[in-house]
Amino acid sequence: MPDQASSSRHATAENAGSETPARPTPRTDADGEAAAGRSLIEIDHVDFSYGSNQTLHDVSLEIEAKKVTAFIGPSGCGKSTLLRCLNRMNDLIDGARITRGAIRIHGVDIHRPEVDVIELRKRVGMVFQKSNPFPKSIYDNITYGLRIAGMRDKVKLDEIVEKSLRGAALWDEVKDRLHQSGLGLSGGQQQRLCIARAIAVEPDIILMDEPCSALDPIATAKVEELIHDLKRRFTIVIVTHNMQQAARVSDRTAFFYLGRLIEYDVTQKIFMNPSNPQTEAYVSGRFG
Asked: Confidence band (pLDDT; 50, 70, 90) for 130?
């Protein structure tokens, strides 16, 4: 597969034997920030099954920090399954499991027994296909995760609410109704509220599973513009059926078919000059 980064074959020994849960810790550059252009997520020869049904076959790729990576492919190709593997959401499904391979974030195998899954999901936030604000005020939606973690300082909470809503390009639209229900917002606003809720806990990675599929074109454009802004601070992995959207928002694109990674490359190359005939047929609309 052209230009596909090779994966490390051996799990890190970091935190081995520790009595406390292993927590993926960001690698930093000289300025103390997670550096773009380095592999943040390593997916290493992963097979995945729902019971006896194998849905991912020998998938390997590396995802760079502070980039947008898009997973594309026809329905049932395994892209959402792989996305949910990255924060172990599939653990909630009976019989769902990785049967071979490893997924590492910041060099830590996220399926090691000592990994704190709750902490993992704080570091790897998720925005779902259908917006799912809590039946609470806009303010309480943003502060929910922070309060669960024990934060009680109202001044600090107020600061984070404003910062998160500004980060989600929503502050100016809702600043005068923070204590009204988030369910009263439009569909596009609700999705941006969910993004604000995700970034409030300062994750390293944001997973987005078809985040615009239920939105109108205007709301979709706002979310896409937001994705461009967010990648300055976060690593983003997005699943989309909309190939035009993948071309607009992503830096790299992975094409999946029947549970296999067919091609993974710079987005422009995937859409303008793919190396695999299956990729070319899919992006040109001949199947899918």
From this structure: confident
User: Which tens digit of pLDDT belongs to each residue from 48-73?
Assistant: 999 999 999 999 999 999 999 999 99
Q: Where are the domains of the chain?
A: 39-283
Instruction: Please tell me the predicted confidence (pLDDT) of residue 14.
Output: 36
Reading the block at residue 54, the tokens are 């194998």
Measured CA to CA in angstroms, residue 78 lies from 49, 120, 162, 234 at distances of: 10, 22, 37, 24
For residue 178, what is the DSSP state? T
Structure tokens at 216: 């109108």
Q: What pairs with residue 104 in β-bridges?
A: 42, 109
CATH superfamily of 39-283: P-loop containing nucleotide triphosphate hydrolases (3.40.50.300)
Number of Cβ within 10 Å of residue 196's Cβ equals: 27
SS3 88: coil
Instruction: Report yes or no on whether pTM surpasses 0.90.
Output: no
- Residue of 192, 195, 206 lying closest to 68 (CA atoms): 206
Ramachandran category for residue 32: left, alpha or beta (phi over 0 → left; psi -120 to 50 → alpha): left
